């Protein structure tokens, strides 16, 4: 077995972070629409989490934000003129569309891609499938840049394969690692890849009625085929449609797993006993911690993002749970977590982080990171400039404080100065992270 570890690559919050309410089905996003955001605080909160985990000894990487506003989309739609003319026209006539094209949603890198480590894949390379995010317009435009960013960080063809997004169609709706969990005894051993889908596009009988199912079985199956995963170590399960209708838009809002532990709500899956039985059959020794509805309701789970947490290995069979501050302020959730730590089970430590700016837009600790299990040889092939350490944290903190506003509302997105601020910041960031010319404004202005 090759020695391996799990690295987390967190999304750096972008300068256009705002509350636009773009994500129907995400209760926090829609309920905070039109509130005033603080992009500087949002980015600094994310950096503080990255630095804290790096200080605990975890390998922590940084993924860059995307260029926004996405003016190339408007030019593809036939708009002409200078950048400022297009911004002015859009902001005054189709403000909702323009705000969507300014979304900083790429910060939630759990949606960037699905990742299978080399221990699981047929060709022995780490496979990334960029998510198409086809269910939401403001996110469906992310895939080309996501692929360029990943290619700049995981550039070695000998170790990494980065697949383009699946075709943009509802039948293949794919939301990335937010609906995927890998279970294993050790990161370097073959594991069980657990795909959770919201609905089956062809022939499905169970689907949510209030909110859309964003992940399809067909997309999950396609990714498993692409990555060369063995059927005997792959599980597909349907999310409970009732919890999607309660605001659980991704599986990582109702379940999280790491190594040989699955932490989930009792209502997470459509047929939980059958799901657990298949997981245990394919992943011997799996420990399932199921949270009863009687102790933590689905509503409290959504309100607090209890399950949108990070499970991190501490060694010797124990794990840390990284949760947002909202868990501590939700009485039933905090009472459960206190009991969990004292129970003698595998999760014996809870760390709390202030991620309010992200949380108010519907993304917690798990949303902000993409998990990548790597061997030491593979890690050596990663762009070294993106690994978090004291020096990078200091440089990025100064970068954020120089370039980010501390107040941004939807109306401010039409300020022509914002576009210049964003491009100036991102041009400097590509130098800090040694990414090359990855953004449209650094290329030919298009996103091709």
Topology readout:
Elements: E1 4-11, H1 27-31, H2 39-55, E2 60-63, H3 71-76, H4 83-93, H5 95-100, E3 113-116, E4 126-130, H6 137-140, H7 143-153, E5 160-163, E6 180-183, E7 192-197, H8 217-226, E8 234-238, H9 241-245, E9 255-258, E10 261-265, H10 272-282, E11 287-291, H11 298-304, E12 310-315, E13 318-324, H12 325-328, H13 331-342, E14 347-353, H14 356-359, E15 369-375, H15 376-380, H16 390-403, H17 416-432
Parallel strand pairs: 1-2, 4-5, 7-8, 10-11, 13-14
Antiparallel strand pairs: 1-15, 3-4, 6-7, 9-10, 12-13
* Fraction of residues in β-strands: 15-25%
Number of helices: 17
Q: If you average the pLDDT, what whole number results? A: 93
The coarse silhouette is globular
CATH superfamily: Succinylarginine dihydrolase
Can you walk me through this structure?
This protein has 17 helices and 15 strands. With 448 residues, the protein is an alpha/beta fold. It has a single domain (4-442), classed as L-arginine/glycine Amidinotransferase, Chain A (5-stranded Propeller). Helix 2 (39-55) packs antiparallel against helix 16 (390-403) and helix 16 runs antiparallel to helix 17. The mean pLDDT is 93.
Give keywords:
448 residues, alpha/beta, L-arginine/glycine Amidinotransferase, Chain A, 3-stranded mixed beta sheet, globular
């Amino acid at each position: 077995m090759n020695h391996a570890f799990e690295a987390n690559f967190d999304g750096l919050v972008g300068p256009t972070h705002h509350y636009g309410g773009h994500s129907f089905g995400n209760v926090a996003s829609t309920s905070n629409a039109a509130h005033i955001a603080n992009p500087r605080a949002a980015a600094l909160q994310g950096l503080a989490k990255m630095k804290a985990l790096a200080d605990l000894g975890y390998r922590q990487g940084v993924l860059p934000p995307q260029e926004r506003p996405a003016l190339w989309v408007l030019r593809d739609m036939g708009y002409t003129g200078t950048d400022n003319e297009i911004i002015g026209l859009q902001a005054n006539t189709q403000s909702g569309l323009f705000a969507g094209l300014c979304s900083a949603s790429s910060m939630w890198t759990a949606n960037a891609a699905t990742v299978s480590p080399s221990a699981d894949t047929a060709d022995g390379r780490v496979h990334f499938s960029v998510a198409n995010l086809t269910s939401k317009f403001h996110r469906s435009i992310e895939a080309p840049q996501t692929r360029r960013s990943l290619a700049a960080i995981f550039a070695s063809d000998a170790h990494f394969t980065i697949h383009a997004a699946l075709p943009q169609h509802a039948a293949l709706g794919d939301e990335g690692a937010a609906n995927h969990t890998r279970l294993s005894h050790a990161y370097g051993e073959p594991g069980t890849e657990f795909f959770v889908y919201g609905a089956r596009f062809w022939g499905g009988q169970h689907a949510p009625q209030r909110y859309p199912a964003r992940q399809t079985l067909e997309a999950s199956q396609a990714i498993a085929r692409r990555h060369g995963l063995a059927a005997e170590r792959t599980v597909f399960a349907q999310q409970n449609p009732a919890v999607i209708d309660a605001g659980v838009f991704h599986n990582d809002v109702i379940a999280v797993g790491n190594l040989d532990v699955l932490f989930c709500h009792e209502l997470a899956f459509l047929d939980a006993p059958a799901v657990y039985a298949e997981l245990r059959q394919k992943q011997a020794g799996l420990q399932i911690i199921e949270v009863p509805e009687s102790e933590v309701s689905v509503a409290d789970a959504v309100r607090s993002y209890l399950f949108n947490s990070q499970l991190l290995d501490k060694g010797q069979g124990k794990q840390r749970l990284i949760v947002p501050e909202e868990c501590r302020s939700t009485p039933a959730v905090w009472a459960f977590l206190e009991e969990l730590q004292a129970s003698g089970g595998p999760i014996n430590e809870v760390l709390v982080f202030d991620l309010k700016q992200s949380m108010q837009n519907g993304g917690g600790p798990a949303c902000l990171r993409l998990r990548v299990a790597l061997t030491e040889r593979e890690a050596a092939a990663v762009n070294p400039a993106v690994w978090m350490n004291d020096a990078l944290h200091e440089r990025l903190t100064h970068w954020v404080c120089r370039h980010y506003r501390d107040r941004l509302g939807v109306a401010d997105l039409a300020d022509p100065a914002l576009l210049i601020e964003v491009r100036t910041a991102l041009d400097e960031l590509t130098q800090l992270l040694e990414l090359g010319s990855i953004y449209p404004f650094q290329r030919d202005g298009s996103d091709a």
